[in-house]
Prior knowledge:
Layout: H1 9-34, H2 39-51, H3 54-79, H4 87-105, H5 110-139, H6 143-164, H7 188-194, H8 207-224, H9 226-236, H10 238-243, H11 248-264, H12 266-275, H13 286-296, H14 301-324, H15 330-346, H16 352-363
Helix pairs in contact: 1-2, 1-15, 2-3, 2-14, 3-8, 3-11, 3-13, 3-14, 4-5, 4-6, 4-11, 4-12, 4-13, 5-6, 5-11, 5-12, 8-9, 8-14, 13-14, 13-15, 14-15
Amino acid sequence: MSAGGRLPRWAEYGLLPLVNLAAALLLSGIVVRLIGESPWAALKLMVAGAFGSQDSIGYTLFYATDFVFTGLAVAVAFHAGLFNIGGEGQAYIGGLGVGLVGLAMGAWSAWVVIPAMIAAGCVFGAAWAFVPAWLQARRGSHIVITTIMFNFIASALMTYLLVNVLIRPGQQSPESREFGPGAVMPAMTDVLGRMGIKFASSPFNLASALALAACLLVWLFLWRTRWGYALRVVGQNPQAAVYAGISPERTTIVAMLLSGALAGCLGVNELAGSQHRILLDFPGGAGIVGIAVALMGRNHPLGILASSLLFGALYQGGSQLSFDMPHVNRDMVILIQGLVILFCGAMENLFRRPLAALLGAASR
């Protein structure tokens, strides 16, 4: 039975997100029609652009890998009662750690360098999350405000470093020199080729396996360990946590460190897996999209995987759409993505009561 806005578990995690997505696509279709294009043709172009060929699938999965890391980062903090909006900055600084290892150790064996890059991304991302965590836990500073501020500080710091310190000598573009061969994450084209499977070239790389491992580890941590249980208790009822002997301050710091470490892994996918150098604005807004990914995925690793794939398809399919439909420019694609974020994130409960009433009537 469904009453009072409460939904069965299958509807909460399956039907409601699909209804929200359908509403966002319907409104997007109306916008596309208003500018003189066919909504059905636009939808087919987006789907074909995201899944119509091997290289498009590779790009979709590449973008989805970024969103898995940032979505998990938001989810871990959320379960502790924290709204971490600093994933963009934590990913940026985590990428700095990845890049510094790549620049310093690129001539070494990949068996040494790649784990070191992953570790550096986690450490740098966690370190950037530590100060907002400490300010929240010890001084009562709101985590939303401090993490937003740290996004801007990270951007300014990276601009300074790439313009004045890390820039490759003799060039004007603010980017570092390329990493050595040992600092390159293997492309899935090569990995699958060794198995006898032909796959078109794309940025899709082995960092996707790291993202899947992160999903599994986050699930195990949150629902199969006492530390994860303590984290969730703090998020649901800090007073009860204190009564049970759990320190909300310590748990807040631990949750944010884990969140920052996950966001920092984005640099492994972007820099070690694709760009092979440090450059400006490589997160590309993935830290912000991670918020919508986590909300749509109900802060569960399985849901985050599904919503990351959706947003990866929107990114890749939207690029193809703007290329093939002249009237649907890049700004229009961003509008469509924004509508999905609006309905699946900020307005996710818009259809909850109607669905509950409909399911309640159907069950009688």
